[in-house]
Amino acid sequence: MRKFKVERKTLETDVMVEINMDGSGNSCIDTGIGFLDHMLNLLAFHGSFDLNIKCNGDIKVDGHHTAEDIGIALGQAFNKALGDKRGINRYGNCYIPMDEALARAVLDISNRSYLVFNADFKSERIGDMNSQDFKEFFRAFANEARITLHLEVLYGENDHHKIEAAFKAFGRALREAIQITCDSVSSSKGVL
Q1: Does pTM surpass 0.90?
Q2: Which of 9, 104, 127, 143 is most exposed, with the fewest beta carbons within 10 Å of its own?
Q3: How many other CB atoms sit within 10 Å of the CB of residue 166?
């Protein structure tokens, strides 16, 4: 099975992430930030992988370090769980509507880190999370997972709907990209 566990301790956070890529979407998430928990539960469900995350962070300061360090640890676990990436589909994409909002995720598990994140939020906070911290989470994940990720909220009015659509699209695109579809590495170079 494609599983991995990462523990990351800093002066700002203590994070544990376990991922099972061949799971069924089960999750147990406790980040200390309720809205982030909600989004990560959706990510696991729509990605069809099992996810266990526990974080004790300096949220009395704010949630930035928690969001970023969870992105780092989750990205590392994702990358390690995939191993040499032999047989994976590699590419994934998905559009998700959430009422009036529409989000698109397009990604390449390329071993090249890059993030394009286009989302405009009207509110400074969504639930108990700073709107700016979503980009920090996705940047940290893309860097550590070594993926190219284009994540965009194409339109919408309600910020909750916009970011929820983005997380669901991201999960579905990941699910497509990690599917085993052949016996070889999906690259003309022979390696990712």
Answers
A1: yes
A2: 9
A3: 28
